[in-house]
Amino acid sequence: MNKKAIEEVLESEALLERFVETLVDEINNDDDAYYKKGRQLLELCLTDENADDFFIAICGWRVDSLLEKL
User: Fold this and answer.
1) Arithmetic mean of pLDDT, 2-8
2) What are the φ/ψ torsions at residue 31 (nearest 5 degrees)?
3) Average pLDDT over residues 22-35
4) Residue 69 pLDDT grade (very low, low, confident, very high; cuts 50, 70, 90)
5) What's the pTM value of the predicted model, to 2 decimals?
6) Which of 30, 66, 63 shows the shortest CA–CA distance to 48?
7) Measuring CA to CA, how many Å separate 67 from each of 3, 26, 38, 39, 42?
8) Sequence-ordered list of residues with C-beta below 8 angstroms from that of 10, at least 6 positions apart, any chain
9) What phi and psi values does residue 49 have, to the nearest 5 degrees?
């Protein structure tokens, strides 16, 4: 990861907004099937004890809460 670029984005509200817009666009335009994305995300949860932080940042919910919604 390019820490200098991350730090630069963190200093700018405009760049932060563009980062999230880019992320959402790339998620929406990704051709991978949902089951493949789901598998990768849940495997991350099994291997990274901080995975909940990612989900909270993305959608405001913990993995357990998302699983309950199934």
Assistant:
1) 97
2) -85, -10
3) 94
4) very high
5) 0.78
6) 63
7) 33, 24, 11, 13, 10
8) 16
9) -65, -10
